[in-house]
Amino acid sequence: HAPRCLAREAAQNNAIHLEEGILDTEKYLPQFDQLLELKRYIKAKGKRISLEEAIKRGVERNPKLKVAFTAIQEFEWQVIAAKRRWYPQLRLNNGTPFAGYTWGTFIEDNYGMRGRAFPPNDSPDPLFKSQQSQSFMMLPGASLEWNFFEPTRQPDINAANELLEKQKYLFAVSARNLILDIQQSYYRAQRSQQLIESFEAIYEINKLELETLRAGLADNTSTSLDVAQRQAQLFSQLEQLIGYADDFIRDTAELAELISAQAEQLAIPKDKATLQGDWLMPLGKTIDQAISQREEILASLSAAEAARWRGIEAIRSYLPIFGLTGNGFLEL
Q: What beta strand segments (E) does the chain contain?
């Protein structure tokens, strides 16, 4: 009986030392402190937002979309400029100078009449005279020109319209890609959030099991190997939780960037991850709809049509132009 009693006593002593070593394990783990720091950061910087609100803010505030809309306005003005080629052209001309003062000086010197005698009653003119003059002059002019037959004008308008349509399609592409990026980022954040919640629940269950195994060391219902294995599993799950927290911060920061949120703010999904519905259209109709409505294809077709009109414009540039021209001047 003595060896058996010694073995039991040694097992109890080992259990006591192991229990002392894993008491309040989380307080001495740097990983647990890191997880708490990540949670505090998410709580301090996070702001909850729904998917609809995220899409609305992204469309309203995203700077890339504003640049694309500015490009549309640029092409609209190009269309206006092409259409204004139908209008008559009025040019104002001017003489030399258009408006200004002129000064003149007239000098008369009858030096040959000096020393000549005149009758008493005759009063001769002065031998030396000087006259100065000043006048204001204006020479405005205008010319009116209207080309009523210009073969290159209509192809230029058509090409500008096609380029405008192309830019509108590209704007739709930018908006669609932005909405898609927001949705994907929102769903990734929901996935990370769901993984964190699930693994936190598993982590708490394993903590309770570890406490149960640790309590069983005293009555030999569990072994040190069981406790060590469960503790290693707990550490591994803690590392996974830290990784999911890092992914969640990255996904929410990316979502905040897409919706142009404030600096250092995290956009946290307000809703839980749920199914969004099924796609009921068959494959053939899906492909036909993608071909007919895909903006990239329509933009390329508009670019090809604009190039065709530019070719017609180049060919018609060899044709004569007929117009009316009128000129007029006014001297004041």
A: 46-49, 89-109, 128-149, 266-269, 322-329
